[in-house]
Amino acid sequence: MNLETPVPVHIPVLVKETIEALAVQAGGRYIDCTLGAGGHARAILEQSLPGGQLLGIDADPEAIKIAKAGLEVYSGSTLLVNENFVNLQAICIKYDFSPVHGILFDLGLSSLQLNSTGRGFSFQHDAPLDMRLSPSQEVTAADIINISAEAELAHLIKTYGEEGYSHQIAHHIVQKRPIKTTLQLARTIELAIGGRKGRIHPATRTFQALRIAVNHELEHLEAALKQAINLLGFDGRLVVISYHSLEDRIVKQFMHQESRDCICPPSTPTCVCQHTACLRLIAKKVITPSPMEVQLNPRSRSAKLRAAERIITQDEYHNTTERLCFSVVANGGGWRRPALLKRLRRTFSVL
Question: How far apart, in whole angstroms, are the C-alpha atoms of residue 260 and residue 276?
């Protein structure tokens, strides 16, 4: 390990549950779409020995630098890419990394970003209102705060932060502009709602809303989930850890929709959607951290894990066994050749 690059203390969330949900196996190929400091990536690589491979993606170049140092012992089995996971499919095509056994999204901010004193993600430190995951992005939180109309700002805080005092907060922000730092914004929000009214700091939801808006997090999540299905091999697992209701709602609705053959409205007399299930839910109920994990790592308290497995769709039944097998051999570097061939032959023998 490069001793000149210190690796911060990072406690990944729901590690055991993630490995089980991904069904990590020796020689498997996996994608960590939110690499962070590399905690989940390390656990996946350890479990997939010998022969496992991991593609790690993160929009934050600092995260890539730190994860590279922490995963140096696995350098021969890892490919780390500084990109946004909204480009997931393009990344995999570029590096010929598909199909894969599992894809992980660990959403929200990493300890690296929360503890950063100059990025503006937290009001625990006075810093410029930036909140960009990548420095290549153009719009900052300060731009949104100081340029948006009051009604637009209130809508953003209400929608992305689920903040009941959104109109009061937006009004006070407009009155106090320009607002340039995190502590300026936090104090303005406190004044707007008359101080702390619950367990969490009054600025928490507004900061969440701004971060989501700056990084287009919800739109990017929806796009990446759709791409993930095309990258999973049959029986491959999709695992998502979310930290607030907006993310979890998107993940839940996506997995439930893609696990159903028909998504027509209940009032439709006969199916016209021609939708075919391509996922199978691994667990009916959401998985959350144990009380012991929450005690050891308080940041895990709001984490929710959902998982699904890729299945063969009805349309895919029309392909021949040989075509599917040879396609996998040609494009996937020999991914699951014997097991896949046997399973496909058994599947088509009963059709």
Answer: 7
Determine the pLDDT at residue 5.
Answer: 41
Q: What is the pTM of this model?
A: 0.85
Burial class (CB in 10 A: 0-12, 13-18, 19+), 175: exposed
Residue 341: band (very low, low, confident or very high) from pLDDT cuts 50, 70, 90: low
The CATH architecture of the domain made up of 15-112+218-317 is 3-Layer(aba) Sandwich (3.40)
The architecture in CATH of the region 122-215 reads Orthogonal Bundle (1.10)
Residue appearing with tokens 């907006």: 246
Burial of 155 (0-12, 13-18, 19+ CB in 10 A): middle
Q: Measuring CA to CA, which residue among 64, 204, 56 is closest to residue 133?
A: 64
Do the Cβ atoms of 134 and 60 come closer than 8 Å? yes
Res. 330: pLDDT tops 50: no
Q: How far from 189 is each of 81, 172, 186, 208, 214, CA to CA, in Å?
A: 37, 7, 5, 13, 19
pLDDT of residue 265: 82
pLDDT, average across residues 17-46: 97
Cα–Cα dist 123/172, whole Å: 17
Question: 318: how many CB neighbours lie within 10 A of its CB?
Answer: 8
Angle at 103 between CA 100 and CA 105, to 5 degrees: 165
CB atoms near residue 204 (< 10 Å): 17
Distance CA 329, CA 238 (A): 22
In angstroms, rounded to a whole number, what is the distance separating the alpha carbons of residues 319 and 290? Answer: 44
Would you state the pLDDT for residue 303?
96
- Beta sheet of 232-242, edge-to-edge order: 78-82, 53-58, 29-32, 100-106, 232-242, 304-310, 279-281
Query: Domains of the chain: which residue ranges?
Result: 15-112+218-317, 122-215, 319-351
pLDDT, tens digit, 9 for 90 and up, residues 231-287: 999 999 999 999 999 999 999 999 999 999 888 888 887 888 888 899 999 988 999
**Strand (E) or helix (H) holding 105:** strand 100-106
Pairing of strands 53-58, 78-82: parallel
